[in-house]
Amino acid sequence: MKKMLAILFAMILALSLLTACGGSTGGNEAADTEEKTEAAVETTEEAEDAEEAEDALATGDFTKDDPLNQDEIGEKEILVVSFGTSFNDSRVATIGAIEKAIKDKFEKDGWAVRRAFTSSIIIDHIKSYPGMLTDDQKASLGLSDDELAAVTNVDYIDTALKRAVDNGVKQLVVQPTHLMSGAENAELKNALADYSSKMDIAIGEPLLSSDEDFDAVADALVKVTESFKSDDTAIVFMGHGTPAENTDVDPSVSNKTYSKMQEKLNEKGGANYYVGVVESDIEGLSLDQLVPKVKEGGDYKKVVLRPMMVVAGDHANNDMADESDDESWVSTFKAEGYEVEPVIEGLGQVPEIQDIYVAHAQAAIDSLNK
């Protein structure tokens, strides 16, 4: 979008130059104006490319990531499937940490662990990083063009499944990092349908699947927020939510998950825990319905914000914690007079959460061996 605006600006500049020439039809003036237009567009595009590169690097060092797409892996594979995030540090600290926990548990038993993302937009964004870099930035990373391309070559879900077939995989465990069995999980199951005749496939459960999962997640979240517990502090989690217009799944089902999570948090941590969502207004979970709940819930002076999402990506950094956005959660609560502390950490960073995914992968492996 920024680049399109920049090009539009350059075109307006060119038009102004033509006007300044008094509409002259002289060949020299027209050629000179065209050259100036091309130069303006080129200069503006270079500036925008440099800004995009800075934005990409500002979210962390993408070269620390591992796309886990190597070939010749044997006949047993665990494919860890995530929506994905273009926020580099968070991708390593959350998705990467879950993948590592699964790898540490099962690799010794002959299981190769691989990655797939379901968001083609995020994959394209990650793959574009090397092309955004200046020569000086590339030199500072100390990697060749081929190495930079390799570290950003994340597989789309269908690409990863085709790769598994080409590698001769006989047993495939697909472990999603999804929070619940919502729209993303439904899409994943649809993608797997075409491959069920090519290998034995088992699908691990998402994070919040059983009552035991809810208890374990609530215990983990109470533990990581223990330092904030105080009578004058409200601890507010931002979930994603399913928009009402989504026709793939019943939005009320996924949003009830958040209501149940709040009940568990209140049961285990106290009344000062709150859960809302950023993409839905069902079940009274949207921000404009959440703020009155917090105001009525106690004499709070401070609000702590955390994402109830596996990664701390765009929603956590922008919708939740962007103080320059008047409509963000941090700005909204500040406008109500609260001291607000956003904690930008995804659920995937919590070891106890990683353990749940490992347990779900184990259950899927066990189902293959029955």
How would you explain this protein's 3D organization?
The protein is an alpha/beta fold. The chain folds into three domains: 1-43; 63-207 and 351-368, Rossmann fold (3-Layer(aba) Sandwich), CATH 3.40.50; 211-309 and 312-345, Rossmann fold (3-Layer(aba) Sandwich). Helices cover 52% and strands 12% of the residues. The chain has 14 helices and eight strands. The chain has helices at 2-20, 27-58, 88-106, 120-132, 135-141, 145-151, 157-166, 183-192, 211-224, 251-269, 287-297, 314-320, 329-335, 351-368; strands spanning 76-82, 112-117, 171-176, 200-203, 233-239, 273-277, 302-307, 339-342. The strands form two sheets. The chain has a four-stranded parallel beta sheet with strand order 2-1-3-4, with helices on both faces. Helix 8 links the parallel strand 3 and strand 4 (200-203). Helix 1 packs antiparallel against helix 2, helix 3 (88-106) crosses helix 14 and helix 9 (211-224) packs across helix 10 (251-269). The longest helix has 32 residues, at 27-58. It is globular and about 60 Å long.
What's the structural blueprint in terms of helices and strands?
Layout: H1 2-20, H2 27-58, E1 76-82, H3 88-106, E2 112-117, H4 120-132, H5 135-141, H6 145-151, H7 157-166, E3 171-176, H8 183-192, E4 200-203, H9 211-224, E5 233-239, H10 251-269, E6 273-277, H11 287-297, E7 302-307, H12 314-320, H13 329-335, E8 339-342, H14 351-368
Parallel strand pairs: 1-2, 1-3, 3-4, 5-6, 5-7, 7-8
Helix pairs in contact: 1-2, 3-14, 9-10
The CATH topology name of the largest domain reads Rossmann fold
Structural class: alpha/beta
What integer value in Å does the Rg equal?
A: 24 Å
Question: Hey, roughly how much beta strand do the residues contain?
Answer: 5-15%
Q: Average the pLDDT over all residues and give the rounded result.
A: 87
Integer tally of domains: 3
> How would you spell out the order of helices and strands?
HHEHEHHHHEHEHEHEHEHHEH
Q: Which stretches are low in confidence, meaning pLDDT under 50 for 5 or more residues running? A: 1-19
Shape: globular
**Amount of helix:** 40-55%
Total of DSSP H or I helical runs spanning 4+ residues: 14
The level 1 CATH classification of the largest domain is Alpha Beta
Strand order of the largest sheet: 2-1-3-4
Distance between the termini: 53 Å
* Main sheet characteristics: 4 strands, parallel
- Give the CATH architecture of the largest domain: 3-Layer(aba) Sandwich
What is the β-strand count? 8
